[in-house]
Amino acid sequence: MNQRFLTLVLTFACAFIASADAPAKLELKTGDRIAILGGSVADRMQHEGALETLIAAKFPKHDLVFRNLATAADEVTTWHRSENFGSRDQWLSRVKADVIFAFYGFNESFKGEAGLAKYKTDLDKFLKDAKTKNYNSNSAPRVVLFSPIACEAIKDPNQPDAAKNNANLAKYTAAMAEVAKANDVQFVDLFAISKKQYSKADEPLTINTFMLSEAGAKALAPDIFRAVFGDSAPTGNLEKLRGAIVDKNTEWHHRYRTVDGYNVYGGRSNLRFPKAGAGSPQISNRDIMQQEMTQREVKTANRDLRVWAIAKGGDLKVDDSNLPAVEKIQSNKADIKPFLSGEESIKHIKVPAGFKVTLVASEEQFPELVSPVQMGFDTKGRLWVAAWPSYPEMTPTDKVADKLLVFDLGADGKATKATTYLDNLNCPTGFQFYKDGVLVMQAPDLWFARDTDGDGKADWKERVVMGMDSADSHHTANAMVLDPGGATYLSDGVFHRTQVETAIGPIRNSDGCIYRFEPVTGKFERYVPYGFANPHGRVFDYWGNDIITDATGNENFFAPAFSGYLESGKHKGMKQFWSRPSRPCPATGILSSRHFPEEFQGNFLNLNVIGFQGIFQAKFSEEGSGLKGTSVQDLIKGDNQMIPNFRPIAVAIAPDGSIYFCDWAKELIGHMQHHIRDPHRDKLHGRIYRITFEGRPLLTPVKIDGQPIPALLEALKTPENDVRTRAKIELGKHDSAKVVAAAKKWAASLDTKDKDYEHHRLEALWVHQWHNVVDESLLKEVLRSPDHHARAAATRVLCYWRDRVKNPLALLKVQVADEHPRVRLEAVRACSFFTTKEAGEIALAVLEKEADPTKPDYYIKYCLDETMSALKKYMN
Amino acid sequence: MKISLIPLCLLGAFLTALPLAAQDEEPKTDDGPKKIYIPANPKAADYIISQLSNKELVQAPRVEPVFNAFLKRKGLDAKYREEALAGLAALHKTDRLTELLAALERLDALGSGSAVAITDLGPFLARSKPADLTAKKSALENLRAKAKLRETRCVVSAGLITADGKADAVWEQAAKDNARLTDLVCGVPLVMDATLRTSFQPRLSPLAQKAATPDLQRQAIQALPAMKGHEAANFAALASLIRAGTERATAVRSLLQLPRSAWQKDQAGPVAQSLIEHAAKVPTDQRTGQDFLDAMQLGNDLSLLLPSDEGRRIRKALGELGVRVIVLKTLHEQMFFDKTRLVVEAGKPVEIIFENPDAMPHNFVITAPGAREEIGKLADAMPQEADEEGRMYIPKSPKVLYGSKLVDPGASLKLNFTAPDAPGEYTYVCTFPGHWARMFGTLVVTTDIEDYLAKNPEQEAPKITEWKTADLAADLKRVDQHRNFASGKALFNSLACAQCHQLGKEGTAFGPNLSGVLGRWKNDRQALLEQILDPSKVIDDKFRAQSLELGDENFVSGIVLAEDAETVTVQTGPSEAAIQKVKKSAIKSRSKEDLSRMPAGLLNMLNKEQILDLLAYLLAEGSPDHAAFKHDH
């Protein structure tokens, strides 16, 4: 009855005791529960476990419990999480924190001198508040405050400027020391520790100046240990212990950062469905998913036992037989039609005259081919497919995980062999080729994975972007198209609270957004923040025109006007460029293949999975500064009566010019219409089909893999978009200096009378962009190309080189007065990225070219509105 | 545990989060004159000006394009129009009237989009001195002759009448030409001088009964209510027009403008009866138009003059002719209709305004009782092809009683149908494949709606939107304009804001005073909205509830009003009766509460427009005269 009062007394007592001198070292007690807070340094600790391993080894009898609550880009006052995630206090209570390791200051430091005072106030409040809490129900947490690590100067022109960040980081570190001292809180100077280790290391210890590699974390850990405990760290081979710790942390990460949060704890977790058929009591998504979360917690605790056993010098086999049960639900869709075989289904897929569909692969031959969602051809001509059998996400007890598969294809285009490149994935929503490996989206991180020994399986992985939210698993970053200049894009949907730590400060967004990521430089930015439901389709056409599709409504946008810079918020509503016949659309493509007759070239392929289950085609035509779409004959159409589970979900053009597409092969597809754990969510089927044109020869694949630089440059003359992209991917493996030198030579040797000369020269410019090497004179040539498509594309390159080109605004001034509205549009867009009044004045000059100001070009007007609102604060 | 809290319902709307009342703290404003950038280039200047809000515009530097915008922009205070005329006159070294005529000419050239602005400028011309207008007579004549818009010609005609100071000469001149006469008649009500205006009565009165063109007749009928001292005669004239069915809609509108004191009881019955007879002939899909609604309004108003039985009979007859209009919406990303029950009268026409803010298309299908699943499954299996009526997924089945076209995301559609004759519980459902399982409601068909609702009150709460500040941020600029006062006021009352807050003289001072509340939030509407949406985010200490533990698991929870050495005065709810003194010796522990007394989610049952209306009501401090409630077009 008097617990409240008692607590109060205890709190005061503790506060009193704590107000002695700042503790020089942390004293751990048996059973202490240590919570870790902070940004990427703290977030990455759970994945490498270096410091935790040293602590566990040093205190084998303490049976310590570590729970990592960090998320890259967290600040002391931010908690950017999806709806109903739970507050920091709630989570600290949930893990019953006795000790808090708080790693703050990096993301805050980008506010510089101006933000320092507020940071000190915020930090002071955090430390004072902590003294009034009792997360473990009997005492205030003991806090250890860690400064940010320094940014590492890496001798690589693609890496960000470490010195600039370090000037701020040093100030923030000093401020933290001061605030910690004033609050009698132990402080660890990671800035100094990291600088010392960087100077001793032969190889960089970070992957991008601010995120420690595993080796980097191991290098710093002993010094951190000494700073925390005032004693030397244990030595010797602790890899077994570390393995057990990482395994435990992985389980915890699945729980704390569960994918599909909006359906596990957020708004749609409240959707209810009859538990055992019509009229029976209902059970919500939350009911079942929270039971699964409890299983995850028990699994984590089971793995703590093994960590303790190894720390004590023994070992044990993890036993998960104690997991509490999870309730089952009957399907609310009882009458599932039996699947026809992949081969039989073809009879029920209608195609126009001349077209022919054949089966490439199905689950009958390749049981691992289940629920394919993304596809792409690599430079060797192999077909890569992301398989997502666990959709909407894995259960804690699933035996089969999601995979990235690689198919070898025979001469007839059929799959001959499947290799699992990556296994044990959960929701692989996107992938894209990069250098000798592949970028793979697995929320919350984007990985770079490589196969270094050539056995076809990835054996090296690194998290390169952290913090992509997954509040709704099928809204998670996907459609990772490459633009012609080498950037890739991540399309993220509604309900999400993505936050990504970058070398120029944290990027945060609420709800839908497409992000732009340059793998070569690590630059990451909001590209189109917009009220998307879940953008899935994404293509760039022959000239680099950017088409974005929002899946739910199958809304298709000509994108330049809404991809300008916005400091915060999202772009206003935009018109669609094509009156699409129906929705929803999981993916788009462009039919760029001379295997098909001329009339089909460049057609926009728009896949649909409900009602109309097939592929629409539309033709682009020029309209003012933008494009207009006009529907033409459907490419394929499934017969819903016969194959209701036929769901074309991904499309790609093969090196031989044929079209490949994946059939997701599911009758239940929506998140909302059925319970997340409806047993009729199919986990057994998946198909890949191929479309050819009878009587026309297939293309001879252009050789890409292993080709020398000049041959790859010549491949850039190929009309097929995908061949040129693959050639540039392959060029990405080569040394940039050599590639750029060769590209210059190649551009100079081009036949100026070639009808495609302007495009070839543009490709040379794009190769420069791909390799992050500025060539101002080539840029200037293409900016004034006789072809407006090339001028528009070059204007976009100028936008991304604006910090490295002499007087970029003078160049934009010319572009904004261009004869062609598309070039003017790109120039107005580019202006939005500047921070000067002059940029606004140049953007406004576009009005001079409007023949009738009362009827302005739609996209130019839209883009000018957005640009001027972005620049408003510099104009007045 | 027993907590001495007053019932939740009493707590009502309680804004603890707001800063102290106005008298305690001078509102700090940061909206002094701002530097607004206006480019020198006229095209760029016009563009920048087009992007400015009215508030920004009036702070802009006084250059020619800004003055022009002052004359053109809707919803600006008259003083800025006056300033613009003076400013332009100074710039061009002319006079105010010259600039006014030039502005009218410019606006007229821009076409019908300027009609509101021209009408707004009308009084400026009409108020000019007759001598000044006389000096500009030829310019006025020229403008009248070449103006494209009726509004311009009316305004100019009022100027010409004012210049002349009497009716005769202008009338004789105009009478030769019907079009010119029509413009003149149209200008009469705009004349400021009541005597001069009313001197047209003898000329208008016959034209209202019979004129060379219908347009001229309508203008005459419209001018009648402006004739001072002739109200009784004009009532009779308008009443006879209505009964004869001559220019009925115009006559109804004019009659509604006449003061009630001029209405004659003996005419009320026959006019009302003629309106009933007329209304019965209007096709049901036109019964939601303005003309029909005006006629209903007049009929109702007239009925109040009649003996109670007769009046009731007329109101009932009118009521039966009205079409039930229901707004039905879809919920974004939820796959639900916003209502799960619609009640309509058997055999009577219904209009549904079906709005689809969702990202998917939806339709509206009425099925026979119990046939939802059957129809839904049939629709699932249908090919994606439109039927002869352009509809999709409407199975050909006798159990489909009505089916609409698909309504695209962001679009809306008016659905007109007649309710089934047989009372019962029908279903309405979206038959887009897969949606039927979830997206449906009950269409109750009854012979007596009032009776049904009395016996079956709404059980399910209206659909809830968990509003977030971001959902509304972009719309906050619309708080200033064209808001609905009645709606704001009704919401303020229905949400029980006044139970805990004072606004003006109304309300109870339990939570912070709402007068000048926006000023205290430095005019940051978003911050104010956030406080309403998330009352516990920032709680002013003065209004933070405390929990006092009294022993025996007894707690008192409320706001501490006062405290002395021995006692703490706590108010546990908004009424005076909820104030109690607690002896300090009885208090075992005290703690501050993290939750505001104001319930979160107050706005969840409202739509966006309602929220804006409520905010406008707060902004206006409950005054209907506030600019936010002006409707000038």
Give a written overview of the molecule.
The complex is a heterodimer of chains A (876) and B (633). In chain A, helix 20 packs antiparallel against helix 21. Chain A has a 5-stranded parallel sheet, sandwiched between helices. Chain A folds into 4 domains: 233 residues, Rossmann fold (3-Layer(aba) Sandwich), CATH 3.40.50.1110; 94 residues; 342 residues, TolB, C-terminal domain (Neuraminidase, 6 Propeller); 167 residues, Leucine-rich Repeat Variant (Alpha Horseshoe), CATH 1.25.10. The radius of gyration of chain A is 28 Å and the shape is globular. Chain A contains 22 helices and 32 strands. Chain A starts with a helix and ends with a helix. With 876 residues, chain A is α+β, with helices and mostly antiparallel strands. In chain A, strand 23 and strand 24 form a beta hairpin. With 633 residues, chain B is α+β, with helices and mostly antiparallel strands. Chain B folds into 4 domains: 189 residues, Roll (SH3 type barrels), CATH 2.30.30.100; 151 residues, no CATH class; 95 residues, no CATH class; 124 residues, Cupredoxins -  blue copper proteins (Immunoglobulin-like), CATH 2.60.40. Helix content of chain B is 42%, strand content 13%. Chain B has 27 helices and 16 strands. In chain B, helix 4 packs antiparallel against helix 5 and helix 17 packs across helix 19. Chains A and B meet through helix 1, helix 21 and helix 22 of A and helix 2 of B.
Keywords:
heterodimer, A: 876 residues, alpha+beta, Rossmann fold, Neuraminidase, 4 domains, five-stranded antiparallel β-sheet, 22 helices, 22% strand, globular, disordered N terminus, B: 633 residues
